[in-house]
Design goal:
Strand content of chain B: under 5%
Helix content of chain B: over 70%
Pfam families (chain B): COX1
Subcellular location (chain B): Membrane
Oligomer: heterodimer
Largest sheet of chain B: 2 strands, antiparallel
Family (chain B): Belongs to the heme-copper respiratory oxidase family.
Number of helices of chain A: 2
Strand content of chain A: under 5%
Number of strands of chain B: 2
Bound molecules: protoporphyrin IX containing FE
Distance between the termini of chain A: 56 Å
Number of domains of chain A: 1
CATH topology of the largest domain in chain B: Cytochrome C Oxidase, Chain A
Order of helices and strands of chain A: HH
Domain Cytochrome oxidase subunit I profile (chain B): 15-467
Membrane topology (chain B): Multi-pass membrane protein
Number of helices of chain B: 17
Chain lengths: 51, 467
């Protein structure tokens, strides 16, 4: 393996680790309710000032 | 600005209308070039030849119809999901002008034969530079609107919108890097196999960032709006988004299997293409599961029909695509008519069905009226579905036949058929494809007529109310 291939593999691994962290965070119990909130809030977005 | 609701919606109307104009141009030219293939005597050099018209068809379709309506719906959706008005409606107005100038310039320069010879990146540097200005204006406006948002969390569509803005910018700048030698001619900054690799990294990610992420943003927004029921899982949407982004960028070399690019690059592209089934189908399942208890709406709600058929074609497309990315399968179907069959299930099936639904949903709301005729919308649906299926299915069969003929050998190992003999056998399929195109065009005309009468009716109503 030359240095270019190692670099390529390294970047892929780092990206994969970031992705794994996103999965763990998204599916953590703490984020369960919060992670689903936007899908309810978007149902009623006809007026900009409506909270 | 639409004062009552506080959103800048007039500009959305402008983009929707112009995207429909370019969509009609794309389909008209598409039908014409399908006839040129079936009846070569319809080529009239120099301007009206297949070689000049094909890139006009793809540019009008992908950039005029596709990007034009994505611009409309990104502006529409972003304002609503952020509960704030557009950062700069004035800038958006300038963007609409520039957009039309760019597409018109693209059509004229391509007809004159100015072409970088890179698929989907044909435009010569002066027009390509205008595209960059256009994209910067668009991206700044959307990003600034998101920055000043009133919603803390971002709904999944906004993630797809941001990915599109960043992705297209990076892809376009890298693949358009070139050395101009005159106002109308430039040479790519890369050479040989490197150039091919950059081109298909761009080409496939144009599929990702233009033909996948924007329609997904639109689908995730309009499906719940049309059914009245939230999307099945927002978190699944988020994970599917990040995995899609993680995987797509490595897959370009599946267009270059068996080509002189390094073997490991091809294998990597093949592996990531197969892995892409997971995030793609996560979106499909999210759509299907959102329909739990709502399937009766397929019959009662014409919008749902467009959206669910659209996501189904996306699902089929993302099974067929990974199969094509496998070396042995690619060796068979590459360079045959199979590929336009694949392309048009994506563009006519997936992307356009979702856009039709979004236009049917928004136009009556923007003009404070009802759709002119649901019956006509249903006729439109069945015509475009039939036209597209005839197109794709005949091309798949034609592709398999041509592939089999190209691979047929005599006992001494020589080829049984010459290339031209395979072409002669394809005429019946090309006639069928042209017929499919005509049916699709008829559907599109019904759609445009319905939208025209909806807008005209709304204007008459508004005038009567004022009087
Ligand atoms: C998992 C997703 C997908 C994969 C892995 C994939 C794979 C492929 C492959 C391997 C080819 C090249 C075929 C050949 O020339 O031998 C191709 C062509 C193409 N695909 Fe897909 N595809 C996918 C999804 C889509 C979607 C959703 C669209 C949307 C419209 C699309 C549009 C296209 C287009 C426009 C081309 C033609 C490129 C050209 O001009 O040569 N694909 N795809």
């Amino acid at each position: 393996m030359d240095s270019a291939s190692i670099y390529y593999l390294g970047v892929t691994l780092i990206l994969f680790l970031i992705f794994a962290a996103i999965v763990v965070r998204t599916y953590s119990k703490r984020h369960a309710a919060r992670g689903e909130e936007p899908k309810f809030r978007m149902m009623d977005d006809d007026y900009p000032n409506h909270q | 600005m639409n004062q009552q609701e506080g959103y800048a919606d007039d500009i959305v109307k402008g983009f929707v209308i112009w995207s429909m104009v370019w969509g009609l141009v794309a389909v008209l030219v598409g039908v014409f070039i399908s006839f040129q293939i079936a009846f070569p005597q319809l080529n009239f050099p120099p301007y009206l030849t297949y070689g000049r018209l094909r890139p006009i068809h793809t540019n009008a379709g992908i950039f005029g119809w596709g990007i034009g309506s994505f611009m409309a719906f990104f502006i529409y959706i972003t304002q609503r999901l952020t509960r704030t008005s557009l950062w700069s409606p004035g800038l958006a107005k300038a963007q609409l002008w520039l957009f039309n100038v760019v597409i018109a310039l693209a059509a004229v320069t391509l007809a004159m034969g100015m072409n970088r010879s890179k698929e989907y990146a044909e435009l010569e540097w002066p027009v390509a530079s205008l595209v960059v200005v256009l994209w910067v204006i668009f991206a700044v406006n959307i990003v600034m609107t998101i920055v000043k948002r009133r919603e803390e969390q971002m709904y999944i569509s906004l993630w797809y919108i941001l990915a599109t803005l960043v992705g297209v910018a990076v892809l376009y700048l890298v693949n358009n890097a070139s050395i101009p030698v005159s106002l109308t001619k430039s040479y790519s900054a890369y050479a040989g196999a490197n150039d091919a690799n950059v081109q298909w990294w761009y080409g496939h990610n144009a599929v990702a960032m233009v033909l996948t992420t924007p329609p997904l943003a639109i689908f995730y927004y309009f499906l719940p709006k049309a059914t009245g029921v939230p999307i099945y899982s927002h978190r699944m949407g988020v994970i599917a988004f990040w995995s899609l982004i993680f995987m797509y960028l490595w897959t370009g070399a599946h267009h270059l299997l068996w080509a002189p690019v390094p073997d490991w690059v091809q294998t990597l592209a093949m592996a990531f293409s197969v892995m892409l089934i997971a995030p793609s189908w996560a979106a499909v399942f999210n759509g299907y599961f959102s329909m739990n208890g709502q399937w009766h709406q397929m019959r009662e709600n014409y919008l749902v029909k467009f959206l669910i058929f659209g996501i189904t074609f996306y699902g089929l497309q993302t099974l067929q695509g990974p199969s094509q990315s496998i070396r042995t399968f690619s060796a068979f179907i590459h360079f045959t008519d199979w590929v336009p069959g694949h392309v048009h299930m994506g563009t006519l099936g997936w992307v356009s069905l979702v856009l039709f639904a979004a236009i049917y949903y928004t136009i009556p709301r923007l003009y404070h009226t009802e759709i002119y005729s649901i019956g006509l919308a249903n006729v439109h649906f069945w015509l475009v579905l039939t036209g597209q299926l005839i197109f794709s299915i005949t091309m798949w069969i034609a592709g398999v036949q041509q592939a089999a003929m190209l691979n047929a050998t005599n006992p001494d190992g020589s080829l049984h058929y010459s290339f031209i003999e395979t072409l002669v056998e394809l005429y019946p399929y090309w006639h069928m494809r042209a017929l499919g195109g005509v049916i699709y065009l008829a559907g599109l005309l019904v759609f445009l007529y319905n939208i025209y009468l909806t807008i005209a009716g709304a204007k008459t109503q508004a005038a009567a109310q004022r009087a």
